[in-house]
Design brief:
six-stranded parallel beta sheet, 13% strand, globular
């Protein structure tokens, strides 16, 4: 392989951890408490976006201030952490893939997530993500959240990887759009959405455990053609 390193830029929820349902339950709890409409379709449309983009859509008749958004977001995330603490675990094959990449000198590995820093630190403490990855980045550290490419571009900058030598692994349409807009190779995992909704990814996998280091290398080199 070339001396220049290759990079894998992971999303968190639905890619490394199976947490989508815990987010849904936390949003549902907040909506029920405040008497605002909430549906599975709304959740699917906004999953992967930062709270500052979700909350104004969820409370369209309220003039939410920045402090309102921060308060509501942390209330939701506190409930999420309460739920996820009971059953937090890796997605099938994710830990093995991350560990193999981390041990390979040809690769650098990082994470960009829309989840708040408090959630990221909570999950890091339990799964030791920072021991496995060079950079953990969240949405508060960039100007624009997904579907803008800012987060993945900043992560690539910190990893010192050019977008054309990096693979973004995502489960949500907003994240796929962000990776595509940044000029990365994109892999969609159909863990939280139907394959058709993430079909704009370069490659879609219905079985996340089927993804291997060799497949990622082939994706970067342009030699991977199979559909999973």
């Amino acid at each position: 392989m070339p001396d220049q390193k290759l990079g894998v830029l992971f999303d968190l929820d639905g890619v490394l951890i199976d947490s989508g349902e815990f987010h849904f339950r936390a949003w549902e709890w907040l909506a029920d408490r405040d008497g605002v409409p909430f549906s599975r379709s709304f959740f699917d449309q906004t999953f992967g976006m930062p709270n500052r983009q979700i909350l104004p859509r969820m409370y369209p008749d309220s003039r939410l201030t920045e402090s309102d958004v921060e308060r509501l977001g942390e209330e939701k995330e506190s409930k999420y952490r309460e739920f996820v603490a009971q059953e937090l675990d890796w997605m099938p094959g994710a830990r093995e893939l991350v560990d193999e990449l981390a041990a390979d000198e040809h690769w650098v590995v990082g994470l960009f997530t829309s989840t708040p820093r408090s959630n990221l630190e909570f999950i890091d403490q339990r799964l030791a993500l920072s021991d496995r990855m060079a950079v953990l980045l969240n949405g508060s550290e960039v100007a624009n959240g997904k579907p803008a490419p800012d987060g993945y571009l900043e992560l690539a900058r910190r990893l010192e990887v050019q977008p054309e030598r990096g693979v973004v692994i995502e489960d949500a349409p907003a994240g796929i759009e962000a990776g595509n807009a940044g000029g990365f190779h994109t892999v969609g995992l159909a863990t939280t959405h139907e394959p058709s909704t993430i079909a704009t990814a370069d490659h879609v996998f219905t079985d996340p455990s089927a993804l291997t280091v060799q497949i990622l290398a082939d994706i970067v080199s342009g030699t991977f053609r199979a559909s999973h």
